[in-house]
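FAQ
Q: What does a multi-component entry look like?
A: The components come first, one per line:
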Amino acid sequence: DSGVTQTPKHLITATGQRVTLRCSPRSGDLSVYWYQQSLDQGLQFLIQYYNGEERAKGNILERFSAQQFPDLHSELNLSSLELGDSALYFCASSVGLGGSVSDTQYFGPGTRLTVL
Amino acid sequence: AQKITQTQPGMFVQEKEAVTLDCTYDTSDQSYGLFWYKQPSSGEMIFLIYQGSYDEQNATEGRYSLNFQKARKSANLVISASQLGDSAMYFCAMRDRNTNAGKSTFGDGTTLTVKP
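Then the predicted structure of the entire assembly, as tokens:
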């Protein structure tokens, strides 16, 4: 158990809908990262938050947004869902800002999203 | 740009034998970190081992060791005394200072099957 929690574990929804994925980082970690894992794209970095502030952005679609709250939990919002958004969404956390190359990211169990 | 290459889509090993999973990387930065993660069929991503570019010794964690050859830009994972529970997908990842803050770049993974 990495100490990172994600809910829900599974989510099935329809095209055009909006969903929210939730993540709680390990105790003491200030950075939260979101990744998308799909069969055709592999593991893709979406976005990073550090202590409530957006720190880095990757291949995140405009239909997707995220935030980190004062208690450090984070939510990833996915809207106008398309079939291609079906994937495993991971949250990871680390202690630092992410600028240190040794700052290990610990992953949550993931949320499997299926868009029908 | 950062790139991680895992050339073995699938590997088989007999139980109790050792196995090496290959990883080569490309970066123009002198300071970088290399990580290995395990993803069992249940889906979670488990951190295994870390190697820093300036570390003089190869990293070891229990049955896992990292064969780091800096000049060849390779960071192969060695699993000794394989167990059935080692059957999983294994990802090599890297972070350097040139990249987008804390983003990690992942390879495509290697599926390891341990035969009884």
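Q: Is there any commentary attached?
A: Sometimes. For this entry: Chain A touches chain B at residues 2, 31, 33, 42-43, 45, 48, 50, 55-58, 88, 90, 92, 94, 96-99, 101-110, 112 (CB under 8 Å).
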